[in-house]
Write a structure and sequence with these properties.
- The structure is a homodimer.
- By secondary structure, chain A is an alpha/beta fold.
- In chain A, strands 1-11-10-9-12-13 form a 6-stranded parallel beta sheet, sandwiched between helices. Chain A has a 5-stranded parallel beta sheet with strand order 6-5-4-7-8, sandwiched between helices. A 3-stranded antiparallel beta sheet of chain A has the order 2-3-14.
- The longest helix of chain A has 19 residues.
- Chain A is globular.
- At the A-B interface, helix 5, strand 2, strand 3, helix 10 and helix 14 of A face helix 5, strand 2, strand 3, helix 10 and helix 14 of B.
Chain lengths: ~450, ~450
């Protein structure tokens, strides 16, 4: 998942950018090394987080208050956010921001609502009918980190599918009291908001406290402590959205790409933090060089220039012979975000089988999907796109299989079941059919 | 997931069965304790498994051969199962078993094929089009344990959705060489079969060896060592089907239930092993008593009677006042398998929101779903049904979001993105839109 958490202070600094590293025509044997991501070992963090989880499990609200004082220097009498504070948040926002959030809400809602499936009953053989019913996960928890940037967009990305899925209890924990977060929550129908953060917030939702309801699945980004807490409670049976890692983008650009756009897209990823992963793949040396020039000039005016420059210097631009090689590299990398600034982008994208989300053509920046086009921005990073999908309505839904067999149906299917159960040495399984056939 | 692994020897023994424990009209405050499952701590097993994984990662095939000799007392020269052995398996089966397996294959295929979704393109606002494309996970691994019972049904349950999803590489590891397993594999189009078992087989698929391809997601049941290995490789980024636990059934029976059928269903769960979980919930004391009598008589003739009897003695029958209470208890328990032997079962089942799979009415035994009705038997157990679904086509598929924005589209959406990005202090995200608007 895109780890949308970053340091507290935007740094206005003139930073001398030394270009992305360019690798020309690498051999296939080099791909693995070139595309490897930095490994992360969170076991040390887990060791520090485990006692926090244990105390919250045992002491509930008292532990939450202690940790808030200890880690955040906040004395919490009451961490339940009053419903009136959530409802009044709207009045504290500018009209422009309100309009933008409402537009994003509408688009994200429309895209996720279309993911609803109608249960189709399948009669596999006469008298044997099977189907799947979709049910919202009864209780879910959302975590939104604090810091200077209020991630209200993530409230929408998690709150909207929870709302459409019909999750009965949606709990939101966030140390932020930014009105945009509360406004986004109110649009999503979330009324249970708690102003707590860190690993103790994850523990509170996993185990429940006197004040905070226990949930079955926890979603949302966070720092390493939050991530470690999610991994630990996952081992105890609480589902989580997906494994986390630094956010990343791969841009595939051919000679039809516009270097200024490509540079802007790379920078929008790089500004997340110095661990952001950026990869440029191109069949054109000219484009790669032009992008590097654009990076220098665009970087100069960015408030978060220092982060971005450092992230870019750790990143790579690959010049490759042809499209086939480009696609092989991109599928091997399995980027969280893949921008395809190439001719016939939609057609070519059919050959991509490993990616979190794909952005087609010159006028589809990643930031559209990050905020407002309608797709979800919680996506598999760190190569997880090989096996995981991003967050969707499915993430908040269970599919329960249901079957109904008539007396005639068990006559039709009975022999098959008995034969197979007997061959697997499970006689009682066969008997469960035999008693029914005898009674028919 | 139903942990379909059990001890090696079926025991023909006369075992004196002492009835299920009956709890009449429990208070709501008691539900939690009554419904609690035995906790499992696999950390000790994990410590024993970790060095095995490490050796396979470092030494590949050599380590696989050493462990086969050490743990299974098998000297493996070549653990690749020859394609001719897979193709010839059919000739070693009885006609009846072949017919049964083919019938099950057809039903399971039909049910899972209906889970395919057609990507629908959504124009969220003019010029902004988003959709999801389904792609089979490129490389998946299936594990089927050994023992006396050849779990060829599980080969079908995992192999069929992998086949429909279009997974390019499907690897099957199993220490069994039973022809029914090879026949099921060949029906599912699986040609890469390796005769290895245990945690080393999981390691081989997670890391790859000289012989065994690395996969992105691993499916299948196994003993505690296999389970621990799956949990450990999952932490390293390999996806797994779902967390494992002892198999379980809850039967909800009213006065229309047939005690002989209910008893047969409870026994078919109980025969899996002494840790199997069985729960009977009924509004009728008469039915519960009749079921207990049936259990005694049916148990007497079962080959696996001793396991079943022990499992049943650890189990409970709850007599409750009314349907509302029964449903509350069943939703709280979140059974892997829920049999509803009640009047208007389908209508009432609408109120169930926590279960892995639901079996309606008197003629729908769990064993139908275990083998041949069409639904998948790999289901969330141990309460995981609160947040997890069973295995389906989705489990072998990723949904990649795709978006295509036109020049007009970015004009329509641009202001919203810029407004939100600026409010989240992500200027480069806003710039990625600004450069495109300027160029329009």
């Amino acid at each position: 998942m895109s780890c949308r958490f970053f340091s507290q202070f935007a740094i206005f600094a003139t930073y001398r950018f030394k270009n992305m590293k360019i690798i020309k025509y690498p051999n296939q044997s080099e791909y693995k090394a070139i595309l490897s991501r930095p490994t992360q070992d969170i076991s040390v963090i887990e060791e520090r987080v485990a006692p926090i989880l244990k105390r919250v499990k045992e002491e509930g609200d008292i532990a939450i208050r202690d940790f808030a004082l200890k880690f955040d220097n906040v004395a919490l009498d009451n961490f339940t956010v009053n419903i009136s504070e959530i409802q009044n948040a709207e009045s504290l926002l500018t009209e422009d921001l309100k309009t933008a959030i409402k537009q994003a809400y509408a688009n994200i809602y429309k895209f996720h609502e279309a993911q609803k499936s109608v249960p189709e009953k399948i009669e596999t053989i006469a008298g044997v009918t099977c189907w799947r019913k979709s049910v919202g996960i009864d209780k879910v928890g959302l975590y939104i980190p604090g810091g200077t940037a209020p991630l209200f967009s993530t409230v929408l990305m998690l709150g909207i599918p929870a709302q459409i899925a019909g999750c009965r209890e949606v709990v939101l924990c966030t140390p932020s009291n930014h009105p945009a977060i509360y406004f986004a929550a109110s649009l999503c129908g979330i009324s249970k908001v708690f102003r707590i953060g860190g690993s103790q917030a994850i523990a509170a939702m996993a185990y429940g406290t006197e004040t905070i309801p226990q949930v079955y699945k926890i979603f949302g980004p966070g720092n390493q402590y939050v991530t470690a807490a999610k991994m630990l409670v996952n081992k105890e049976g609480i589902a989580i959205d997906m494994p986390a890692g630094p956010s990343e983008v791969a841009v595939y650009a051919d000679e039809t790409a516009k270097p200024a756009f490509v540079a802007a897209d790379l920078l929008s990823q790089a500004e997340h933090g110095i661990d952001s992963q950026v990869l440029l793949v191109s069949t054109s040396e000219t484009v790669v060089e032009a992008v590097n020039q654009e990076l220098s000039s665009q970087l100069a005016v960015l408030p978060r220039a220092e982060f971005a420059a450092k992230a870019l210097e750790n990143s790579q631009a690959l010049v490759v012979e042809n499209q086939e090689i480009a696609l092989e590299i991109l599928n091997q990398y399995a980027a969280e975000h893949l921008i395809m600034s190439i001719e016939n982008a939609e057609e070519v994208s059919e050959k991509i089988y490993n990616a979190g989300s794909i952005f087609l053509g010159n006028y589809t920046p990643e930031s559209a999907g990050d905020y407002a086009s309608g797709t979800n921005h919680t996506l598999p990073t760190n190569g997880y796109a090989r096996a995981y999908s991003g967050v969707s309505l499915d993430s908040f839904t269970k599919k329960i299989t249901v079957q109904n067999i008539t007396q005639a149906g068990i006559q039709n299917l009975g022999k098959t079941i008995i034969e197979m159960a007997t061959a697997e040495s499970l006689e009682a399984h066969a008997n469960a059919v035999r008693v029914r056939l005898a009674n028919n």
